[in-house]
Amino acid sequence: MMLSxxxxxxxxxxxxxxxxxxxxxxxQSKVVLALIFFFPVLTTSVKDAGSAIxxxxxxxxxxxxxxxxKIIESWEKRVLMGFVVFFLxxxxxxxxxxxxxxxxRKIERFIRLLAIVPIYLLLRRVGTETAKAxxxxxxxxxxxxxxxxxxxxxxxxxxxxxxxxxxIIFGDTAILFSACVATGLICLKPPxxxxxxxxxxxxxxIYASVLSxxxxxxxxxxxxxxxxxxFIRKSLNKKIWSMITVGLLGLTIIxxxxxxxxxxQGIDMGVxxxxxxxxxKGAGSSWGARLNMWRxxxxxxxxxxxxxxxxxxxxxxxKRLISAKLAREGYAYGHAHSIYMHFxxxxxxxxxxxxxxxxxxxxLMAFNKCWGQSRTGRERFYAxxxxxTIVSFAAFGFSEGWLVRxxxxxxxxxxxxxxxxxAAISATKNSVLEER
Length: 436
What we know:
The protein is mainly alpha-helical. The chain has helices at about 5-20, 25-40, 50-65, 75-90, 100-125, 130-155, 165-190, 190-210, 215-220, 220-230, 240-255, 260-280, 285-305, 315-325, 340-375, 375-400, 405-435.
C-alpha cells in the first residue's frame, strides 16, 4: 500500500491541497527554477551544496506533491517505479550481508533513488519546464569549474586538480555539464551570440576535466558525438554531413598534433599502466588496480551469483580473499571502481539486471519515446538531454563506482528528473492545446 493512501495522510494532503497557499503560484515556480539553476553551479564547487538543494526539493515534494501521482502518465510511473524496485533489490541483498553498519551507510546513498519520486512529482505539480534553467546553470557551472581548476592548479600548485571532493567527481561532472550545454546548442538553435558563449562554456568544462586528468571522462566525448549524430541524422543533408565529417577529421588531426601535455601525459600513463599490468599484475598503477579490483569482484560474484555477497560486505569479502591468497594487497577501496562489477559482486545477477533495467534501460526508453514524439527544438532538447545523461552515466560506470558517491547520485537524479519532467509537462500542454 502506498504511504500516501493511508487515510490520515490522505486527509491531511487533501486539506493542504485545497488551501490557497499550496495552489501553484508564480513564486513557487521561481523558487524551483532558482534551485535547479544553482544546482550545477554549486554541486561540485561548494561542498554539500548539491545535497542541500536535493534535500530541499525532496522535503517539498514529500509535503506537496503526492497527489500528482494520479495524473502522471503510465510511462512516467514505470520509470519512477523502476527506481523503487531497484532500491528494494538492494534491500534484498542484505540477506547475505554480515557487515550491517557498512550496509546501512551505503543504503543511505541509495535512498536518494527513492527521493527521485517525490522530487519528480514536485516538478510535475509546479508545472514549469525546468530544463532550460539546468542548461543555463550547467553553462555557468562549466565556467565555475574551470576557474576553480585554475585556482587549484596555479595558485595552490596542485598538479592534478581534485576540487572539493575528488578528481574523478570534478572531471566527470565537468564533462557532463559541457555535454548538457552542447545538447542545448544542438537542439535549441540559439542566436549566434549565445552559441559563442555556449562554446566558451563547453571548452571551459573540457579544460576543467583536463586539469583533473580524469582519462575515462575524455572517452565519453567521441561517444556522445556519435550518439548526437545518430539522433539528428534525419535533419542533416549531405552537405552538412560532409562539413561535419571534415570538421571532425580536422579536430582529430589538430588534437593529435597539438595535444596538450596534460592529455598526452594522461594517455601515456594509461598505456604504461596496461603494459605494466601485463608483465606484473601486482605492480601499483591506476588501471592495474582497477583490473585487480574487477577480478576480485568477479571472484566474489562466483561465490554468490544470485544475490551477491551483500551490499555492505565488499571490503570484508576482499579482506577474506587476501587472507586466502586469492587477491593482492596494496589497493583498498570501498567499491570495485565499476558499478557493473561492484553490483555483480554485492547484489549478484538480480542486482545487476536491476541496475541495467531500472537505472539505464527504463529512463533511456522513456527519453527515446519523448524524442520520437518531439515537435519543437525545446522538446528535442528535453529528450536528447535525458539520453545524454543516461549515456554519460552508463559510460562513467565502466571505470567508476559513481552510485556509491553522493555527488554523482545527486547529479544523475536531478538531471533525469529535470529532463523527464520537462518533457512530460510539455507533452501535457500539447495535449491540452489539441483538445481545445
